[in-house]
Design goal:
The chain is mainly beta. The chain contains three helices and 17 strands.
Length: 281
């Protein structure tokens, strides 16, 4: 017959006639085991070790636009209508060209483009070599969008803007993160989720924009030099949705809230190549 709580208390009471040396030893061992189990459950997960050896798993040098891999979006966004026309998205001399035009199209003032990859990851290294446009209204971005299957649509799915640029803010280049907890719509905790740097020749020279994606941090690089790490600071998908597959997106839109001159259009966002790596076994 199993002992109830009162029976155990009686058994372990100093006045109890049931106390035996072996039972006291067993009780002490059980107490130690419970304490150790509790400490282990409170211990944080060890961070992913830094990876030095990466194995290439995807590369596109844009000799052609592979429509079996990339999907152009045909739909409006803000003041830009995204098309799959060659005027807006094409490859040319080994470069991906995303071109922004001022033109009346389907009721919108501008035409631009974006292309979206299949899912990659989670985790790995993602980078592209690109030259940015000069036009003040141009809004090119190299970013990752989380899969909707895991946590739902944006912002729940998570967004990582590896390189985000507004021509009228040159020479500043931005890295921005968006989650359910913090995104551009709610404006919450944005200082923690954003950084920027100056790159005076961003529109004249090609640069490599990259990210190393670990299970508890995101490390960002410009031309191979580290400039920012975003560390996971809480558990749960609302603050860390970066634990499931994401899609690569290249975009070229008109900035919705820019009211200056757009006489410097058309202009192009050029991508030389994009690469995805995983840690080598």
């Amino acid at each position: 017959m199993p002992l109830g709580t009162s029976s155990i208390s009686q058994l372990l009471s100093p006045k109890s006639s049931y106390i035996k040396p072996k039972l006291l030893i067993m009780y002490k061992l059980l107490t130690i085991l419970l304490v150790l189990t509790s400490l282990a459950s409170c211990k944080k997960e060890d961070p992913d070790p830094h990876i030095d050896n990466w194995c290439l798993v995807m590369e596109d040098e844009f000799d052609t636009l592979d429509l079996n891999y990339w999907t152009p979006t045909v739909a409006p966004n803000g003041n830009t209508y995204r098309t799959d026309r060659s005027e807006n998205v094409r490859t040319e001399n080994g470069y991906l060209i995303l071109e922004l035009h001022k033109e009346s199209y389907e009721g919108y003032e501008y035409t631009g483009a974006d292309i979206v990859s299949p899912n990659i990851g989670p985790y790995g290294r993602v980078e592209c070599r690109a030259r940015l446009p000069k036009a003040n209204i141009a809004w090119p971005v190299f970013w990752l969008l989380g899969s909707y299957e895991e946590y739902g649509e944006w912002p729940n799915c998570g967004e990582i803007d590896i390189m985000e640029y507004w021509g009228h803010n040159a020479p500043n280049v931005y890295t921005n993160l968006h989650t359910k907890h913090s995104n551009f719509k709610n404006g919450r905790d944005r200082d923690r989720h954003s950084t920027s740097y100056e790159l005076a020749d961003a529109s004249d020279e090609f640069h490599v924009y990259g990210m190393h994606w670990y299970n508890n941090r995101l490390e960002f690089y410009l031309d191979g030099s580290h400039y920012w790490t975003f560390n996971q600071f809480a558990t749960g998908w609302k603050k860390w949705p970066y634990d499931h597959p994401m899609k690569i997106v290249f975009q070229m839109y008109a900035t919705p809230d820019y009211d200056g001159s757009d006489a410097d259009l058309p202009d192009i966002f050029e991508v030389d190549w994009v690469r995805v790596y995983e840690g080598c076994p």
